[in-house]
From TrEMBL:
UniProt family annotation: Belongs to the short-chain dehydrogenases/reductases (SDR) family.
Keywords: Oxidoreductase
Domain of life: Bacteria
Protein name per the record: Short-chain dehydrogenase/reductase family oxidoreductase
Lineage: Bacteria, Bacillati, Actinomycetota, Actinomycetes, Kitasatosporales
Length: 310
């Protein structure tokens, strides 16, 4: 890893196109803005049209000359994922940043009946990556898929017998499992890309403890103002800003020397400032067997096959 690396070290991205999911706020917004600043054409893939278009205008104001556009994408609906990929214009695709996510929600189901955290954080991105894979492979050397996980993945591995946690739902365990799924997905995708001998790189990143609206979303949804306020105080006094939280993602997406299945994060899980480093990960996220099992289940649940890597 490059010592002292920050956003100013992002290589020139002119001529490259990036898709960033959940780009209307927080880490996704900071990631999209910095890529646009360095010359990339950036597609802001967001669920809410109003917030997505507002983010588009804000990035143009903060990064004059930025080429950005909003495109609707709801990762909780596989029909929306399919439509996004079908409507993606003919230009090349160099970077897919699987950033969007939900955290510790009360039990909810996606439009397709999946537990919401597993459905959005993993299955939605699995389907999106598979549908955009042909375009990524066409881009050739330098193309990357970066999936945003969390240090919280250390709290729970994927249970292949109960992917939607129907037996007993615990919101933080469900979140941890979805973040482990992100790493297992990256592990298996990296293996398949290496086996196929193609230059597309699959890597993962995590922001540490970053100040975003992710943690307060569930209390707000449930009307728990005290919990919402508690999360806001934590963000204000203990978390690093979203701009720093986005650095590991930006490093994984653009820095030279990033390898298949790399996992990048801040020093000490973000509790200490510094440039991105290779992050510690649970041993179960490096299990070939678990990764293959999750991949097979994901194909079955989403109906998306990675034909080019079969």
């Amino acid at each position: 890893m490059m010592k002292g690396w920050n956003a100013s070290d992002i290589p020139d991205q002119t001529g490259r196109t990036a898709v960033v999911t959940g780009a209307n706020s927080g880490l996704g917004y900071a990631t999209a803005r910095e890529l646009a600043r360095r010359g990339a054409q950036v597609v802001l893939a967001c669920r809410d049209a109003g917030r997505g278009k507002d983010a588009e205008e804000r990035i143009r104001a903060e990064a004059p000359g930025a080429v950005v556009r909003f495109a609707p994408l709801d990762l909780a609906d596989l029909a929306s994922v399919r439509a996004f990929a079908a409507d993606f214009p003919g230009e090349r695709l160099d970077l897919l940043i699987n950033n969007a996510g939900v955290m510790a929600l009360p039990y909810r189901r996606t439009a397709d009946g999946f537990e919401m955290q597993f459905g959005v954080n993993h299955l939605g991105h699995f389907a999106l990556t598979g549908r955009l894979l042909p375009r990524l492979l066409e881009a050739g050397a330098g193309a990357r898929v970066v999936t945003v996980s969390s240090f919280m993945h250390l709290l729970g591995t994927v249970d292949p017998a109960d992917l939607s946690m129907q037996r007993k739902y615990r919101r933080w365990v469900a979140y941890a499992r979805s973040k482990s799924a992100n790493l297992l997905f990256t592990h298996e995708l990296a293996h398949r890309l290496s086996t196929a001998g193609v230059p597309l790189v699959a890597a993962a990143a995590h922001p540490g403890y970053a100040a975003t609206n992710l943690m307060s979303a569930a209390p707000k949804m449930e009307g728990h103002r005290a919990k919402e306020r508690f999360m806001e105080i934590g963000n204000r006094y203990f978390a690093q800003p979203a701009e720093r939280g986005a650095l590991p993602t930006l490093y994984a997406a653009t820095a030279p020397g990033v390898r298949q299945d790399d996992y990048v994060g801040p020093p000490l899980q973000g509790l200490r400032p510094g440039s991105p480093v290779r992050a510690a990960r649970a041993k179960w996220t490096l299990s070939d067997k678990a990764a293959r099992q999750l991949w097979a289940a994901s194909e079955q649940l989403t109906g998306v096959r990675y034909a080019a890597l079969a």
